[in-house]
Write the structure tokens for this entry.
Amino acid sequence: MDVKNLADVPAFITKDGSEIRELLAYRNAAIKNQSLAEARVPVGSSTQEHYHPKTEEIYYITAGIGTMRIEDETRDIKPGDAIAIPPGKKHKLWNTGSEPLTLLCCCAPCYEHSDTVLTEEL
């Protein structure tokens, strides 16, 4: 049985600049076709706009508030919101609040730096 606790999982920075803790993926568990991670976007910060040619994502906001853009559509987001991001769709996330924006990120297939295409410079 694979059980991971967030406190025991090291953080790393994704290609888009997010700090994530990968809870379950093929790198640390029996999971082969998806991954689950917690991501944090600091106050006043954002991810770099990017897309994933192969991977579909679900973001589930657990704390903080922000703004999400997928292609030309922009929405304010808050805890309890689940956001579907299809493969190939450019997306960007801003923290517009006064605390870290925290979310769970589900990726299928698993997150890979090589499947992340940056579409803007910081």
